[in-house]
Amino acid sequence: MQRNLFLLLSLCGFLFWKIPLLPVQTVFAQELDEQIEKEVKAEKERQKFIEEMQTLLDAAMKSGYSEKEMREITVTRNGKVLHIWDFLEQEKLREKKDALARKSSIPRDRYLTVMDIADELEGGETRDLDALKDKSIFVGAEEK
C-alpha cells in the first residue's frame, strides 16, 4: 500500500514538475519589458530636468547674475537640495564618460586572439574601477 502511494505521489510530482503552473518565460519577458519601460521613462525625465536646469542657468546669465551667484542657485528635487551648477557639471562629466565608453568598443576585422581577450578584460576592469572611483568620490551636487 505504501509503495503504491509513494509511486503515485512520485508520478504526480514528476508531472507537475514538468508542467509549470504559470508560463515562466512570459512572466520574465513581461518583467523585462516593464523594467526597460521604467528605465526609458526615468531617462526622459532626467533629460527633461537637465534641459530645465540649463534653461534656468541661461536665464540667470542673461539677467545679469554673476558666476558666483549662479553657482549658489539651488533647487529642491525629491526632498534633496541640488546646486544647479554642480549638478550640470556632473552631468557633463557623466555624458563624456558614457561617450568614451561607447567609443572604446572597436569592431574587429580579424579573429580574436587570447591576448585580444585579455586586453579587453583588463580594459573593462579599468573602466569599472574608474566608474566605481568616480561614484564614491563626487557627491558635490547634492546636500544631505
Task: List the topology elements.
Layout: H1 2-18, H2 24-62, H3 67-71, E1 74-77, E2 80-83, H4 84-104, H5 114-137, E3 142-143
Antiparallel strand pairs: 1-2, 2-3
Task: Note down, in words, how this protein is organized.
This protein is mainly alpha-helical. It has one domain (27-143). 74% of the residues lie in helices and 7% in strands. It has five helices and three strands, in the order αααββααβ. It has helices spanning 2-18, 24-62, 67-71, 84-104, 114-137, and strands at residues 74-77, 80-83, 142-143. Strands 1-2-3 form a three-stranded antiparallel sheet. α2 crosses α4. It is elongated, with a radius of gyration of 27 Å. The relative contact order is 0.07.
Short account of what is shown:
Helices cover 74% and strands 7% of the residues. By secondary structure, it is mainly alpha-helical.
Main attributes of the structure:
mainly alpha, 3-stranded antiparallel β-sheet, elongated
The SSE string, one letter per element, is: HHHEEHHE
Strand tally is 3
* Overall SS class: mainly alpha
Taking the alpha carbons of the first and last residues, their distance comes to 69 Å
Largest sheet, strands/sense/barrel: 3 strands, antiparallel
